[in-house]
Amino acid sequence: MGRRLVLGSMLSGLLIASVPVAQAAQALAPAKPVKVVATFSILGDMVKEIGGEYVELTTIVGPNSDAHTFEPTPADVKALADAQVLVLNGLDFEAWLPRLIQSAGFQGQQLLASQGVSVLHLNPAEQAHDDHGKHAEAPKEADAADDHDHPQHTSDVDPHAWQSLQNGIIYAQNIREGLIKAAPAHRAYFKGRASVFIEQMKKLDAEIKLAFSEIPKNKRKVISSHDAFGYFAQAYGVHFVPLAGLSSQAEPSAKEMAAVIDTIKQEGISGVFAENMTSSRLASQIARETGAVVGGTLYSDALDVPGQPAASYLGLITWNAGQLIYVLKGGLTKG
Q1: Which residues form the signal peptide (predicted)?
Q2: Could you tell me which residues are beta bridge partners of residue 157?
């Protein structure tokens, strides 16, 4: 995938002679990498997979960092001010982003990675009302003229759409097209890398579905730290009972904790999972009171540090699925 795109090496001497020397030199010079800013680590990895050596990437919210509580720094302002492309999730995930865009005076291309996904509503009643979900929308016409579209403001939807590999494919397609728009000379390179990346996602998606299909549906129930796995649940038929709401910093009340404990006991839920950006204290407490197993750490909003299994997008999905399957199949053995 890392092979450099080779520009034509056998140009006609007559063709070169027919254009000014300066113009010919510019045509033959290698294009500079596109300066891209990705809002958080998962998007950053996708950009890196597709953009390769023709992207100069800055990721604002890094590994094991919480995008919910993030506050931009002067370095972030400078990076965005110098960028040509901003890759964002949208769906109100990056609440701090409008302020950062304004501070940086960014006028480049905003690439909405979630464009076209079928989003899930946070309110179950809303979801039932709209059987097919709403779709992340394309940029408004008024903004398209200066290529400066704005993030969506759709607070009734779950922004964690990347937790489904089918949505991950849509993200990759959007990133591919955005990079081609920014650097059309590297179209074949970006398309080739995106094609490999997408095929890897399709293969992994099929493997995960097969693994979960071997577990009875009524046994696919776990407790998670916060409400970040709705798309994973929909894709693979796993029921997550979150301890808290959408924010990873939310804390359940004593009444909510008691209700979760009752649910675990009544429904025979076998696994409790903490996340890489949340404390494992509550998971351990619940396990002590119910006998449920504390599973491995799940990754929701951020990758792990380089060198770890969940340090890439595909690694994150593989790790999460593996931890869930291990605990759920263990619960079957004990039950």
Answers
A1: 1-24
A2: 121
Q: How many CA atoms lie within 13 A of 33 on its CB side?
A: 17
Residues near 200 by Cβ (< 8 Å), separated by ≥ 6? 314
Residues 213-232, buried b or exposed e (16+ Cβ, 10 A)? eebeeebbbbbbbbbbbbbb
Mean pLDDT on 64-84 = 95
pLDDT at 149 over 90: no
CATH of domain 214-334: 3.40.50.1980
Do domains 13-204 and 214-334 share one topology? The answer is yes
pLDDT of residue 285: 80
* CATH, range 13-204: 3.40.50.1980
Q: What is the pLDDT of residues 188-235, one digit of tens each?
A: 999 999 999 999 999 999 999 999 999 999 999 998 877 899 999 999
Confidence (pLDDT) at 139: 41
Under 8 Å between Cβ of 231 and 158? yes
Both tokens assigned to 319: 């790790």
Instruction: Work out whether strand 109-112 and strand 85-88 pair parallel, antiparallel, or are unpaired.
Output: parallel
Say which residue, 23 or 164, is predicted with more confidence. Answer: 164
Domain range summary for the chain, segments of one domain joined by +: 13-204, 214-334
CB 252 within 8 A of CB 244: yes
b/e burial code for range 284-298 (CB count within 10 A of at least 16 → b):
eebbeebebbbbbbb
CA 49-233-313 angle, to 5 degrees, is 15
DSSP helix/strand/coil, 294: strand
Residue 278 contacts residue 302 (beta carbons within 8 Å): no
Task: Write the pLDDT tens digit of every residue in 292-328.
Answer: 888 999 999 999 999 999 999 999 999 999 999 999 9
